[in-house]
Amino acid sequence: MPSQLPPEAPALVLAAPGDASGVAAKLAAMVRVDNPQIEVCLAGLGEDAKELTSALEAAARARPADGAAAIVVPLLTGPHPVADRLIAKAVAESGVNVTVTASLGPHPLLAEALHIRLADKGLARADRMRLLNISSPVDAVILATTGGESAAVEAQPTAVLLASRLTLPVLVASLDGAPAVADAARRLRDIGAQRIALSPCLIGPEADPALAASVAAEIGAECADPLGAHGLIADLAARAYGSVLAED
């Protein structure tokens, strides 16, 4: 990321499922603090994405007509049909010259953040301890996504990265579609895993806060917290913006 940007550089617009509060607001604040050279805006998608449309129009008014007004970074770890549709709708209705990045995963930093959240709950060895000869608190992990089957498919590389960090089996399952979490738990128990942890591959706003914990309880597993306002997620959002700038 360049340390300085011209005044006409596109705004970084973070598009968050739901409203622009809570975890999304904390992440936006973190991106601003770490990247003061970027104009950072946050727009909640709500049910109609009008807030995002307004943010894009405002960004365009502050910039030359022939330049890019904004780079939209979805605060999502993978594809999400509802959010993706709302973002496309807002971009079309605004008529503004913008680029929409892919979601924040898969990425090694995402796997690292997931590892940290597991360790926070005592469900994985902390990073500094994982190379020592200390037994793992669990036998396997289910990486839980939302967004249906496409999101689960996209999360496979993240699962591989997380499995490498944990040196444990990691299967992907969907909280709102296939493959089901119960099926993943059955497969893991069939290979001898008794202690299973559920790792929500979620930032937070894209799902009911209680959903992951409820599903984990149904399969007799413990559950890590969602990724939330983690510094690595803020870093990924800024990197997504910087990658688009580097392509121009």
From TrEMBL:
Name the UniProt record assigns to this protein: Sirohydrochlorin ferrochelatase
Domain of life: Bacteria
